[in-house]
Amino acid sequence: MSAPTRLYIVRKSPVHGNGVFAATDIPKGTRIIEYKGELITHDEADDRHPTNPDDPFHTFFFALDDGLHVIDAGVRGNPARWINHCCAPNCETEEVDDARGKPHVYIYAKRNIKAGEELNYDYRLGLDGRPTKQDKLNYECRCGARNCRHTMLLLPKPKAPAKKAAAQKTAAKKTGTAGKAAK
């Protein structure tokens, strides 16, 4: 019986620091790796110093959907902590609770990934309140994707101006001013 093929390798990334790269072609839907580390509360995460004090916005925290817990891959973590952010990711994450209720985070291939491609997912980082210009710079994205939002933060959706224009058009039709020049 042959050994399973290793799906990834860790090496220097052109995006940021270390990165995780496909060691072989990876089909869409493949579970690649679990994001491992110490399970802590958000309060504990807030109290922990960054891994690198010179880069305080770089951590190995993965905030869970329950809003209460964080996985700190800086403690007992694995290579998943080196997967970089991308605004047009080739991977996605899924949270699953085991039979005992312990949360696990798995990284899956979102599409077919070619050997040599860097693995990435959208971090969708959240902050309390509306992100400031400085917040966006602190969490700058370097992915280079065509649709890059230039930050790893999850930004609020802009209000669609089309709705306002459509409402004005509807109101104009009701008042009989649609398509008429103002006098």
Automatic annotation (TrEMBL):
Biased composition (Low complexity): 163-183
Protein species of origin: Piscinibacterium candidicorallinum
A Pfam family it matches: SET
Domain SET: 5-124
Subcellular location per the Swiss-Prot or TrEMBL entry: Chromosome
EC numbers for this chain: 2.1.1.-
Domain (Post-SET): residue spans on this chain: 137-153
Major location (coarse): cytoplasm
InterPro entries in the cross-refs: Post-SET_dom, SET2_Histone-Lys_MeTrsfase, SET_dom, SET_dom_sf
Keywords carried by this UniProt record: Chromosome, Methyltransferase, S-adenosyl-L-methionine, Transferase
Gene Ontology BP annotations: methylation
Molecular function terms, GO-annotated: methyltransferase activity
Protein name, as recorded: SET domain-containing protein
EC top class named in words: transferase
Region annotation Disordered: where it falls in the sequence: 159-183
